[in-house]
TrEMBL record:
It comes from the Bacteria. It comes from Microbacterium aquilitoris. Keywords: Membrane, Transmembrane, Transmembrane helix. This is Flagellar biosynthesis protein FlhA. The keyword Transmembrane helix applies. The chain crosses the membrane at residues 26-48.
Length: 52
């Protein structure tokens, strides 16, 4: 996997944990979800292009 994709996934996980724990920073949970979805789409596109 690409290093940038791994970094994005790690950032998404960290933001999800911080957003879930800290009630005042609840918007981070939504940011983590969006970043996670973008990372998942990028990963799926990479896999589909590699297999095609």
């Amino acid at each position: 996997m690409n290093l940038a994709l791994i970094i994005i996934i790690v950032i998404a996980i960290v933001l999800a944990i911080v957003g879930g724990i800290t009630e005042g920073l609840q918007f981070l949970l939504w940011v983590a979800i969006i970043v996670g979805v973008i990372a998942l789409i990028a990963f799926l596109l990479r896999v589909l292009r590699k297999n095609a």
